[in-house]
Structure formats: C-alpha cells, structure tokens
Design brief:
The protein contains eight helices and 15 strands. With 376 residues, the protein is α/β, with parallel strands linked by helices. The protein has a single domain, classed as Purple Acid Phosphatase, chain A, domain 2 (4-Layer Sandwich), CATH 3.60.21.10. The protein is globular, with a radius of gyration of 20 Å. About 4% of the residues have low confidence.
Length: 376
C-alpha cells in the first residue's frame, strides 16, 4: 500500500485522522521494521549564507529547519543529498556556481535530525580533492554516515549499515560533475558508469549472509535540471539497476519534484516489486523560480519477515514541502515548512499558508502521473 499526501501513518505529526481503540492483542512479533526518510537536495546558495551570517562573522543555520525537525527526527534513519562542499575561513564561503559552505551548516543538519548524507552530485568537486577530504572529515567528526564520494581509495563504494535488525545497503552516484574529473581522482566519486556499477553490484550476492544487505537503495543524481518528467534514459537505467539487485531508487538533481513508478521486475523467474522516485526536488535552497521552492520528503517503511527472512518495502509516503523566503529577517531568511494538510492550521502567516497550499497542489499533480510498469 502506498500513500501520497493523505496518509497519517508515516507522518503522524502532520495529519489528523479518527482514532479507533480496542483491547490490545498480545502476539509474537513476526517482522522487523525500519523507517527511512529521504529528502531532496540540500543547497547552500549565497542568499542562504547571507541570511545565516551573524554579527561576529560566524554562521548559524539551525532555525531554517525548526519547522521540519520533528519530521526528520521521527525516522530511524534520515537521509539527504548534500549538494555543497565544506570550506573554511581560508577558502572563504561561496554560493553558486562553486559552493563552499561553513561547517555549521552540517551541525544544523545534525541537530535537525539527519543521520546520513550522500555526497555524489555535480558539485562534489567544487573544492577539488581537498574539498572532498574536508567535507568527509567534517561529516565523520559530527557523527554522520556518508557515501558517494571518498577520501580513501580502499573504502567500499557502498554504505552498509544495520538498524532494527535490518541490514541496509546504500549506493550513491551522479551522472558527473560540472567539468571533468581528473583521471587520477576518478576513484573519489561514484558516477553512473554501468560497467563500474555492475562490478560493484555483482559482488553483493556473493557476500556472506552475515554481511549481505537485506535491502538495497540507490540515491541517484540524474536527469535534466528543472524538467518536470524523467527521461527515457533514466527509466532504462532504473530498469537495469533493478535487475542488478537495487530495490528502491531515490533521485535528485532536477531541483523540482517529479513522479514515481512502481514496477514488477522478473529476474530468473521470480517477480518482485520495485519503486523509483525520480526526483524529490529541493529540500532547501534559495531558488525561487516556480516550482523550485517546493520539494518532497519521502518516508519508506521496510519490513523483514522473521519467518521467510525476506525484506520488502511495505509502505511509503510523500510529504510536500515549501521553502519560505523572508527578506525582512536578518537571520533564517529561508525556512523549510511541511506542506501536509494539518500544516495549514499551524501557520499564522497568510503568505506562507497560501504557498503551502500551492506546493501541495503542485506536488499532488506531479504524483498523480505515476504508473506501474512491468520490467523483464
């Protein structure tokens, strides 16, 4: 079963539904569950830096996420795409086209509830190899899990982690970068090279049972910027990844929300369900051109049967988001608002309320285009 925005199961703080009570039934737990939350691109434009800069020259981004932190912290693991590079006083801080961001941006994301940040996107090399090392070092020091770019050539190309008794594998890769990657540094970034990815994914079934992931997710930076629909090339790549063992794909890069497709994949006579979410849009950015200030948070419920030992996606929700800009403020000029139905009653500002409704309407229209396809 899947839900768009009308669900209350995975986003209980944002929706209101009648509650039916009955006597509790005591029974043996037959499955383990893992609740994941994915967001779109985490941008840090110059306008965001200016809004977060304090009088003493430091930067504070925390209140940009104050309206959405309860959603982020409610999941077992919250995962976002970090589309910037960490700088310092020596490098300076910049927005587009080459991002360099204060480390306090990461601190704010950690406080807000993020656990995992993927780092494979077209801005990964904005600070060169040193920028990659600096970013990954900062992520490690703050307790983040990360994957997609690497400062150690011996590190696995995938992230493996276990939570609630479910082993998760996360692959993060990008179509490329702005420019070309030096050959000597190609190992630093996962790209959508099917030859290389094929070699990585074919090793998964050969792993020992104790290490092999129960569920595989790919976080892909792909598609055309600002396009409202995926390309045929993306759909073909998704089908290929599903046949290679990926269960769910979550996309980013277009900076707008695109639809999703539920597919049944036939591999060696077995038919299994797979889902691709082509783009979640921006989670936070300073982009204002319609509909770039709208995004979506994706909640996935993963379940592992104790009897069959099989793991599958049992439910998902897509929650609309709106990034509000308030230039009258000297701090937190950009704030992420949940745009679910219950959010309407929690918003006092008329401008924000209207935009939240507009975000919900747009994202519902995008998701209604979704369909099911059988992949052989």
């Amino acid at each position: 079963m899947s839900r768009l925005v009308v669900a209350g199961f995975l986003f209980p703080l944002l929706f209101t539904f009648p509650v039916h009570t009955q006597a509790p039934v005591l029974s043996e737990v037959k499955a383990s569950q893992l609740k994941l939350l994915f967001t779109g691109d985490l941008m840090a434009h110059l306008e965001q830096l200016n809004g977060a800069k304090l009088k003493d020259g430091s930067y504070r981004f925390d209140s940009s996420f104050s309206k959405i932190s309860s959603v982020l912290s409610a999941a077992d693991l919250t995962i976002g795409n970090l589309e910037t590079v960490i700088g310092n006083k020596k490098t300076g801080y910049f927005g587009y086209p080459q991002f360099l961001t204060p480390v306090s941006y990461l601190s704010a994301l950690k406080t807000a509830g993020f656990d995992v940040l993927t780092t494979a996107n077209n801005h990964t090399f904005d600070g060169g190899p040193a920028g990659i090392t600096r970013t990954l070092s900062a992520l490690d020091s703050l307790g983040f899990l990360s994957t997609g770019s690497f400062s150690d050539s011996l590190k696995p190309n995938l992230l493996f982690t276990e939570k609630n008794g479910i082993k998760l594998g996360l692959l993060a890769a990008t179509y490329g970068i702005n420019g070309s990657i030096p050959k000597k540094d190609a190992w630093r970034l996962n790209t959508l090279d099917t030859v290389k990815l094929g070699k990585v994914l074919t090793q998964i079934p050969e792993m020992p049972d104790s290490l092999r992931p129960d569920f595989m997710i790919a976080s892909l930076h792909w598609g055309n910027e600002y396009a409202l629909a995926p390309t045929d090339e993306q759909k073909k790549l998704a089908d290929w990844l599903f046949r290679k063992g990926i269960d769910v794909i979550v996309g980013s890069h277009p900076h707008v929300v695109q639809g999703y497709e539920k597919k049944k994949v036939l591999v060696k006579g077995d038919s299994t369900d797979h889902t691709v979410f082509f783009s979640l849009g921006n989670f936070i950015s300073a982009q204002r051109t319609y509909p770039r200030s709208f995004g979506a948070a994706l909640s996935l419920m993963i379940e592992k049967s104790h009897e069959t030992r099989k793991t599958k996606l049992t439910d998902f929700d897509l929650l609309p988001l709106y990034v509000h800009q308030d230039l009258s403020k000297t701090e937190s000029r950009y704030v992420v608002w949940p745009a679910g139905y219950k959010a309407d009653s929690l918003i006092a500002e008329k401008v924000v309320k209207l935009k939240v409704k507009e975000a919900r309407k747009f994202i519902l229209s995008q998701l209604s285009k979704s369909d099911s396809i059988f992949v052989r």
